[in-house]
Specification:
The chain has helices at residues 2-8, 10-34, 41-56, 62-80, 86-110, 115-140, 155-173, 181-212, 227-251, and strands spanning 144-146, 150-154. The protein contains 9 helices and 2 strands, in the order ααααααββααα.
Length: 252
């Protein structure tokens, strides 16, 4: 279903990403609440409307809109102080950067030339990295990667995921006929960083859950956890893919 919406693009993808934003922000808010902190609810929900508005305005006035949104967050914090602490404001802005901005980069990727294939590339790298890290870590893992965050993750799994991510990028770059030679080279060049970013995104979400002392971000997807559990890698890998591809496209 998601791949069909990515293929359709436009309003359908915008609506799907908006829904993911809302659900992701809901889970993030609950994680913070279970951490005995609180996010500023109204500014957090407004952020889900901010980026679709930027899209509808064709990316005009991005800086002013973000500036006034930031001022709005400060005003909401000051108006409700001491109900909210500076830490609560910080968590609110973290939710905007992590969840809202992360998902919005799927829209930005889709609007690029060959945007559909770029998102498919992103998903393939993330999924192949996760799969490779899981199986290689399960069978060969001995050295813990980040025991304080996720005791089961190992350096062997990390390197295995990186290897499978690069192999998947190579196979993808030579399999899609619409990609130019330069675009194929760029996708191969950035694959290691995208793979690492995906694994970092996984670890980052794990720190949030450990902070809140919960196993899953929610139970919205039976047997698989929540939206953030499914898209934790994508939320960091999508912005990195977008910016690295644009930079290298201009340089090569």
């Amino acid at each position: 279903m998601l791949l069909f919406l990515v293929y359709q693009g436009g309003f359908y993808l915008l609506l799907a990403v908006f829904l993911l934003m809302v659900l992701g922000l809901y889970e993030f808010r609950n994680i913070i609440k279970k951490s005995h902190c609180q996010a500023l609810s109204f500014p957090l929900w407004i952020s889900a409307l901010l980026f679709p508005l930027i899209y509808l305005l064709k990316y005009n006035y991005i800086i002013p809109l973000l500036f006034f949104y930031l001022i709005f967050c400060y005003f909401s914090y000051l108006r409700n102080y001491p109900q909210y602490s500076p830490l609560d404001l910080s968590f609110t802005l973290l939710g905007v950067i992590y969840v809202t901005c992360g998902f919005f980069h799927l829209i930005l990727l889709r609007q690029m030339t060959d945007g559909f294939w770029l998102i498919i590339y992103l998903f393939i790298i993330v999924w192949s990295t996760d799969t490779g890290a899981y199986f290689i870590g399960t069978f060969f893992g001995k050295h813990q990667l980040a025991p304080a965050i996720s005791p089961k993750k190992t350096w062997e799994g990390f390197l295995g995921g990186l290897f499978t991510g690069i192999i998947a990028a190579y196979l993808f770059s030579i399999s899609v006929p619409s990609l130019s030679l330069v675009e194929g080279r760029i996708l191969l060049y950035i694959a290691p960083l995208v793979s690492i970013a995906g694994q970092m995104g996984d670890l980052f979400e794990s720190t949030l859950k450990r902070f809140a002392q919960i196993k899953d971000s929610s139970q919205i997807i039976p047997g698989h956890g929540g939206i953030l559990d499914r898209f934790d890698s994508t939320l960091l890998a999508a912005p990195l893919t977008y910016y690295l591809f644009n930079i290298l496209e201009r340089l090569l």
